[in-house]
Amino acid sequence: MRERFEVYGEEAKQRLLAVANASNQAERDIAGCLLAGWPAWSPSDLPALKQAISRERGGGWIVRALAKFPVEQAAAVAIPIVEREGGMNQAGFVLGEMMPRALPQVLRRMAHAPRAERDNLAAALSFDSAFPEETPSPNPMLRALVDAATNRSLPAGDREQALRLVAAFGVRARSDGAAIRPLASDGDPRLRQAAHSALRSMLDPSVLGEILASCPPPGTEATFKPDPGAPPPLVDAPGESEAADCFGALAGMGQDAGQVAPQLLPYLNSTSWRWRMQTAQALGQLGNRSVSSALHPLLEDRDWQVVAATILAEVRLGDETAVPALRQVAQTHWFAAVRRAADEAVAALQAGNPKALDSLYRTDNRFANLLWNNPLAKEAASCALPATTRAPMSLDLHGGTLGGSDRGEFGGNLTWMRAGAPPKLLLERNVSGMLKLSDRTAWVITGLSHMGMEYAAVYRVRITGDGDARISRLLNLPAASRDLSVDGDGLRSSGWVGSYLLVPADAGGRSVRISQVDCAH
To answer: What domains appear along the chain, each with residue ranges and CATH number?
Structure first.
C-alpha cells in the first residue's frame, strides 16, 4: 500500500504526517505504518515527525522513520522513550539499530540518568531473543562497549556506564572478561565497582570464590531467603525452600568451576527438592567426573524433577556406570517423559555423546520443555473418570473443615476453618481435589496449567490435638490433573501426561506410592 502513496511524493507524505498528528487513533496507526518506511525525508520534516512520535506509546510504528535521519538527531528522540517505557517497543528496536553509532550519546545520557532509566536502556540494548545455550555470535555493540570501558581517554562517567551495559549482557560477555578484569582494581572506585558487577554478571572465573561463598550453608533450607527485600512468596508448606541463585551461577561457569564440584555434594542430601535439583544441574555442567557416582542415588529420588535433572547430569558427565540405574528408571518410573529421557540417556552414554539430551531441556522451564519439546513425546493416554467419583474440594476433619479453591491463573488457596476461629490460610495454590485418610489426616492435590506454566504437588494435612492444621509437601507431580478421582484407597489423576494412581505407602499417608494406570482395565 505504501508504494501507492509514494507515487504522490511530498504531498502524500505531508498529508500522512497531518493524519499522524490528528486525534483519530486508528487513522494515526495507519498513517504511522505507512510513514515508517517512507523513503525520503528532509530536516524540515523532523518537528512534525517528533510530534507524531510523542503521541504514540513506545513511539509507535512511525518511530521507525527516524532511520532516515542522522544518528544524533534520531537517538535524541528514541533514547528518552526507551528511558521512560523500556525497550520492548519500536523505539527500542530503532535505538538498537543505531548501535554502536549512537553509543557515545547513550553513555553521556546514562551518566546523568536515574537508575530506573539507566536500567531500561541497559535492558533494551542488551536484549537477545536467542536461547542462552546457543553459541553467541560476535556482537558489534558488545565489542564497542568493551572498547569504551577500557578507553582511558574517555571520561570516567562514560566508562562506568559502558561497564554497566557490559554487565547487562551477562554470560554473553564472558569472552571479554580478560579485558575487564584489570578495571576491577582501577584507582577510580566507580570503575572498580562497575567492573566487579560486570565480572559477576558474566560469571567470570575471577569471581568463583565469591559465588561459592554466596551459597547458603547446607541444612538451612527452612530459613533461606534469596532476597530479604523481595515481596513474600506464595504461602507454601513450611520448610519448602526457594531456589538459590549460586547453584545456577556455578552451573553457568561450567568447567571453569569444576574444581568446586566436591564442595556441592552435601546439597545432594538437602531436604529441599529445589536444592537437590539445582545441585544435580550444576554438577552436570561443571564437568567434574570424579563426583558422578554421588549422583546415582538421585535417580531414585521421590521428585521427578530431581530425577530428570540427574539424568541430564549423568549424560553430560559421561558416566557409563549409571547405565544400569538409568535402565531401571526407563523401565519403572511412573512418569512417561522421565522414562523416555532415561532411555535416550542410555543410548547417549553408549554412543559417547554428552550433548544428546540438551535439546530436551533447552529452556528456562527445562522440565516443562522435557515434556513438550521432546520429539518422541506424545500426549499420553488418559482414562475417562465417572463424575460420581470426583475427588472432593472440601473435607470435614476433626474439629473443622478443610476447603480448597481453583481460580486458574488468578490462584486458588487451601484454608482450615474451625467454628469460632478465623480461617487459617495453609496454601496459596490451586486445589484440584482431596483424599481423606483418617479423621485427622488428608491429602491435598494442587495444580495449575497456564500459558506454558505447570505446577502440581501432593500435600499432607494433619490436624493436631488442639485443632490446628499442619501441612507438608510430599512430592511434586508433572502437571495439573484434568480429572481427579477417588480410586479405592487412593487417588487417580488423569491429564495430558497420562493417568497414574496415588496411594499411601504407609498407614499415616506420610509418603506416596505412584503407579501408572492401565486405561484398559
So the answer is: 215-224+233-372 (1.25.10.10), 387-516 (no CATH)
